[in-house]
């Protein structure tokens, strides 16, 4: 499963990079070595529509798992992406899919979610969730309600007493690779129509100021609560790759 999962994540990453590049410009790539085994590659786009987009891949291993849900030597591979759009009408989207294996347990985790940055459109939320639901219903109709509720709980900012966006799907400690593939295959269907619909909408300087305030909430969640950020730092990962999720600007 190690090679099967990492090969899939790498292929999916290239598909997403290609699709985003067609809307803007090519990504720059920066490989990085892990301190023990393996490494990863940062894929970064700073363009006209994507003020900052990162689509990263990692495949690492080590002697001691840094979290409390596994023991001993570990292997981890995954794809992690974030988009911070220049146009405030275009929402931020996040996706992470990962496979982890320790001496005691192995599992998949991840999902994707949508975060408007001050400009909310009900039709975008409906489309995003509908694609997610269809992808999971084809496997098991009980999955979407469960994963959607888990996203509401996971992507909640306690000190703000609100969700960071309009939800999506989230799962962890899950054994089924086919579900991971279904989620990955649905991602571009979920987000591309929204991006294409919003990136040409006129906006003002006040809209950008509002966007920066919502980006600040995003920063707060990622630095205080996000499991991927915690795992990255605790495992000795590449700080530049981990902090790719940060927006290019934010304000408090």
Descriptive terms for the model:
alpha+beta; oxygen-dependent coproporphyrinogen oxidase; 7 helices
The count of β-strands is 9
Tell me, briefly, the overall form.
globular
Estimate the helix proportion, in percent.
Answer: 40-55%
- Rounded to an integer in angstroms, the radius of gyration calculated over CA atoms is 17 Å
What distance separates the N and C termini? Answer: 44 Å
CATH topology: oxygen-dependent coproporphyrinogen oxidase
CATH architecture: 3-Layer(aba) Sandwich
What is the domain total for the residues?
1
- CATH level-four homologous superfamily name: Coproporphyrinogen III oxidase, aerobic
Strand count, sense and barrel status of the largest sheet are: 7 strands, antiparallel
Major beta sheet, strand line-up: 1-2-3-4-5-6-9
Provide the succession of SSEs.
HEEEEEEHHEEEHHHH
Kindly report the average pLDDT value: 95
Low-confidence parts, pLDDT < 50 over ≥5 residues?
Answer: none
